[in-house]
Amino acid sequence: MKKLFITLFLVMILCTEAYASDWVKVDKYNYINLDSVSNYIDDNDKIQPNKKVCLMKRLNTDGYFNNLEKKVNKKIESDLSFVIFDFKTNKYTRKTQACFDAKGKVVYSTIYQNNKLIWKDMPSGSAPANWAYLVKNENILRKMQAAQKNPQIKNKK
What we know:
Strands 1, 2, 3, 4, 5, 6 and 7 form a seven-stranded antiparallel sheet that branches. Helix content is about 25%, strand content about 35%. It contains four helices and seven strands. The protein has helices spanning about 1-15, 65-70, 125-135, 140-150; strands spanning about 25, 30-40, 45-60, 80-85, 90-100, 105-110, 120. The protein has one domain: Surface-adhesin protein E (Lipocalin), CATH 2.40.128.710. The protein is of the alpha+beta class.
């Protein structure tokens, strides 16, 4: 039953329009949805105080999804993932992933249960470590969002 609710929740999220104003470009290929940043609640409905989650979008402009494209035999334009950052262990993982073609059609999706999450290290200075820093410090994300909406802010000191 819980899987059904998680699946329905994922479908709802993926069908909801995400306005450009909600997305903050955090590097060349990745965006974080500012409104999605929150404390992580696990599959047992327990808040995990050392973990935060956010919705991330990745553009496939560098061949990042080549292996997955071969597996599903479809061209992937972008993906949306709920990413969990564990600040205690300095690791991150994807909770969900949905990949889209150029027309916005889902060509691949998956949901991981807590006991099947694949945790990866976040070495200092790496892209995931930078994302985690931004998620942990939402005020910086908000400033980045404001600067991206209004380029004149970048020049103010």
